[in-house]
Amino acid sequence: MRADHIEAIAESLQRVEPALALERIVSTVSASIRTQPPALRMRTLLEDEPDLLTSGSPKMPRALERIIAALTQQGATTLQRPRCNYCNLVRLLPNSTGGALICSSCHQGDRGTTVECVRCGQSKRRYSGIGNRGYCQQCWTDKQAAAQPELVSNLMSRFPNLPERGIEIAIAKSGALSAGRDRTARLLVECEDFGDSWFMDPARSSRLFRRLYDGLRGAGAPLDEPVCGHCKQPGPLGSRRDGLICCRKCYRAGHLTTCDGCGQEAGIERRQPDGQGHCQRCTNKLICG
């Protein structure tokens, strides 16, 4: 299955860069995406948002950034590397904020912003936080040190009938500790600040919180089945539109635009160098023609 997803991703890339050999693109994609789940997510993303390959959007996944950078070095000219979300320059983007990639200079500037720390109340440089709730470095370090037991305590007070072990398993399933990153403190802050509303309406939550929600529900917490934030129907909810977690159908409905080939409202499959976008049917005609 992974090989099928890799090939589909490579074909999406080759539609933008037809001069590059498919075998070379497959090799590049395979080196960047080594397991099936992220390969499936990437394939779905490119099927839903083909413009991502030429937009230079800072919100593209980091794996796609690596693929585009590698193919650019191999001669790709239409693919666009992402631009920093702050300075809008094409450069190395090792950091991110709010789901968007940023360069080191802007990251340092963001951390240099002076805020009133929500924990100690003093005006200090912002080190971390969520939204407009900033923490200084010392307070965030202290928050991280006690995050796991405080998060378990918070959830046990919300779901007193769940065993502590079930809550710990749900936290583990959230992915708060994965890929060498500890986001337990972030998950704790989300539960403290947004838990009352997000447990009632998980479509408004973050992906991290949503995974916790699913884990708690699987452990027996009295939580409703998640539904699409737009059509309110249950089902696979792997997309987001207008800030709400949603199904693929509603995501696509929100990204329809006029095809420059046939004039119909459709998802754009291919963007030409002159900026014209074509739906899948018109793209197939271009390839076959």
Please explain how this structure is put together:
The chain is of the alpha+beta class. The protein has four domains: 2-80, no CATH class; 112-143; 150-224, no CATH class; 256-288, no CATH class. It contains 13 helices and 14 strands. It has helices at 2-16, 22-32, 36-48, 52-55, 62-73, 104-111, 137-145, 147-158, 164-173, 184-198, 207-218, 248-253, 280-288; strands spanning 95-97, 100-102, 114-116, 123-125, 128-130, 133-135, 177-178, 181-182, 239-241, 244-246, 257-258, 265-266, 270-271, 277-278. The strands form seven sheets. It has a two-stranded antiparallel sheet. α9 (164-173) packs antiparallel against α11 (207-218). The longest helix has 15 residues, at 2-16. The radius of gyration is 21 Å and the shape is globular. The model has no long low-confidence stretch (mean pLDDT 86).
The proportion of residues in beta strands is: 5-15%
In quaternary terms, these chains amount to single chain
Structural class, by secondary structure, is alpha+beta
| Low-pLDDT stretches | none
Termini separation comes to 31 Å
Helix content: 40-55%
Note the main sheet. Answer: 2 strands, antiparallel
- What's the domain count? 4
The helix count comes to 13
Radius of gyration: 21 Å
Strand order of the largest sheet: 1-2
> How would you spell out the order of helices and strands?
HHHHHEEHEEEEHHHEEHHEEHEEEEH
- Overall pLDDT: 86
Shape: globular
What is the number of beta strands?
A: 14
